[in-house]
Model the fold of this input.
Amino acid sequence: HSVMRNASEDISYGGNAAVRTRGREQLYSTVAELIEHHTDRLADGLITDLIALTRSDPPQASLTEVKAWIPGLILPGHESTASLLASALYELLMARQHGATKTESIDAVVEEILRLHPPFPLATWRFATCNITLSNIDIPSGAPVLVNLGAANRDPRTHPQPDQFIPHRDPLNHVSFGLGAHHCIGAALARLETRT
Done:
């Protein structure tokens, strides 16, 4: 557990490329070691369910795929939740300091924190599937596009007073977890961890 946490911190906060590379190597090798030789040490859950996919007839995933997916769950699950919790505590303490007395539901607070402080404000790279013009900017088919979820969540046309923490917004339709096929697989877990 501490090996994976330390590797995650090296990857997220490593001061140079060598530290980040070392963290990635350590994380991937530790996951591979667990999956290949120590599955008996894993509690039943998502990881054991993914491993079970490799044993179905016919297999629904390869062991190589599972080894690649797990670090993709560990990294965002660690850093994003820590960031989200820190943001939630900050906003709640600031609201109290400024005399807010209304008690909001925890679900409303979590959703507003997600809108105001998305754990990953920049989505992963996307690629235009056709020529398109957005705000007078031509984007050719195949061009890489980096979506700023943080900016989308602060669009005043959708969220009046977008820079303010207002947990009773209705309806709250942020895009912190992406949309459609790109919706974050860990969204429910992130909400549960933050509520807890």
Remarks:
- The longest strand covers residues 132-134.
- The chain has a mean pLDDT of 86.
- The beta strands are 126-127, 132-134, 137-139, 144-145.
- The chain has seven helices and four strands.
